[in-house]
Amino acid sequence: PKHELRGAWIATFGNIDWPSANNLPVAAQQSELILLLDQLQSTGINAVFFQVRSQCDAMYESQIEPWSADLTGRQGRAPSPAYDPLEFMIAACRLRGLEVHAWFNPYRARHPSAKGKLSKRHIANTSPVLVKKYGTQLWMDPGENAVRLRTERVVLDVVKRYDIDGVHIDDYFYPYPIKDAQGQEVPFPDEPAWQRAQRRPAATVPG
Asked: How many Cβ atoms are within 10 Å of 61's Cβ, its own excluded?
């Protein structure tokens, strides 16, 4: 049978859509989410794209990356009383006949608007060689094999542990260009990865 995908993004970064603030009690967070899902369902939406990773952090219980500051006000701080927002989201969506797609930002490590200290478990602290400063931002270089493997590990962790219906990768593959004080575009510092790629032998097609 034909099936329309009528989806809506639920952005968690910067408290854009949910939660409305990073200091809400757990009960208030859950009430907001239920209200939001009820509103989406009433308009005919049948799928939600839930932002679970916006800057190498997590809106779910992760052994790889720290809790998001957008959830608890401090990166690495778990919600109290303990609960898993992604698990809660999936259960609430199942009751409403909604699909849940986990939305990942694959390479952004820290946005300039982010406040507070990075968690000791953040990749900028655990694997600083993989994180590159670009203006006031922190990014991972998708040209680095170790970075791609890290992203793959994070995504597969969610796929294997949660009953999601899909994976959504947002368009944060490289940062938007920035300019210096003279108005010149600042190159993204991916030259080492680029040079290594040039030295690799070209792939051959069998046959």
From this structure: 16
